[in-house]
């Protein structure tokens, strides 16, 4: 292992085998410094994410840079009461911040006391997956500053906030794929030179990370459209699962929804929506998807669950979701 390496982080592997990302210490510190500048200065952090994933590690790195002590939420299922208890231990004279995944933000917004706590925070970083517009609207209505974070383990975590690159991060879109460059990039993957060469490329002297995300870049703002590999072919028609999720989230009862593909004897593959919570007007939502995106994009069905299965990182467990979707057939 090279002496400059600070961390080796295992990615969550939502759709495949986990990968071990090699991060130089300088990359992690560059990420922390860029975040601090983008958020308006140093803060004391509530640690609500696992520290064996990059989002939790970043809270520790930002705390080191700010010379503040993070306060961890007690282990166990995430609750509003647990978050409030951690926040109560923050130093009152310091600015406060936290990093969450969307499901955690939803839990806190459902609790009046937690909303009051968040209202006093300098920033609430939310990442790990697309944040439903309804959640952002609820936070804004409560005067809570939510900052949407985009990045990955390979970029030392979030390097684009609310669509704009932070620090010295650079963005480009090549053949529809979002690519990122800057001082927070990883060295590559541990013991996997082939994958490193595939995902990290050099163009005109600049080293870029190929995210495998689809997006649009106008030179100032990045719009991430979803994973390039979430496009399926159903009955000969290309269907983007991320766009279906976005369309469904505009309807009541679909704030927490993931769309997965299941095999279909006639069409090859069909989208199925897995949504948390009680049944809403599912038929109307599915009809709206068909009207807006075409008949092939209409989910075959909606599978209702009490809570979406997630990985320790807070990201959706797509393997478990596909099993749920297939079992409900």
Structure description:
The chain is of the alpha/beta class. It contains ten helices and 20 strands. Helix content is 30%, strand content 31%. Strand 8 (157-161) and strand 9 form a beta hairpin. The chain has helices at residues 25-39, 54-66, 80-87, 102-109, 112-119, 133-141, 193-199, 241-248, 282-293, 318-327; strands spanning 5-10, 20-24, 44-47, 71-72, 96-100, 123-126, 146-152, 157-161, 164-165, 170-174, 177-181, 188-189, 200-203, 206-217, 222-227, 231-234, 237-240, 257-264, 268-276, 302-305. A seven-stranded mixed sheet has the order 4-3-5-6-7-8-9, with helices on both faces. Strands 10, 11, 13, 14 and 15 form a five-stranded antiparallel sheet that branches. A three-stranded antiparallel sheet has the order 1-2-12. It folds into two domains: 5-223, ANL, N-terminal domain (Rossmann fold); 235-327, GMP Synthetase, Chain A, domain 3. The mean pLDDT is 92.
Summarize the structure in short.
This protein is α/β, with parallel strands linked by helices. It is 30% helix and 31% strand. The protein starts with a strand and ends with a helix.
Order of helices and strands: EEHEHEHEHHEHEEEEEEHEEEEEHEEHEH
Overall 3D shape: globular
User: Mind telling me which CATH architecture of the largest domain this is?
Assistant: 3-Layer(aba) Sandwich
**Cα end-to-end separation:** 48 Å
CATH superfamily of the largest domain: ANL, N-terminal domain
Number of helices: 10
User: Which structural category do the helix and sheet elements fall into?
Assistant: alpha/beta
- Number of distinct beta strands: 20
Class of the largest domain in CATH? Alpha Beta
Give the fraction of residues assigned to helices.
Answer: 25-40%
Mean pLDDT: 92
Number of domains: 2
Q: What can be said about the biggest beta sheet?
A: 7 strands, mixed
Supply Rg.
20 Å
Strand content bin = 25-35%
CATH fold field value of the largest domain = Rossmann fold
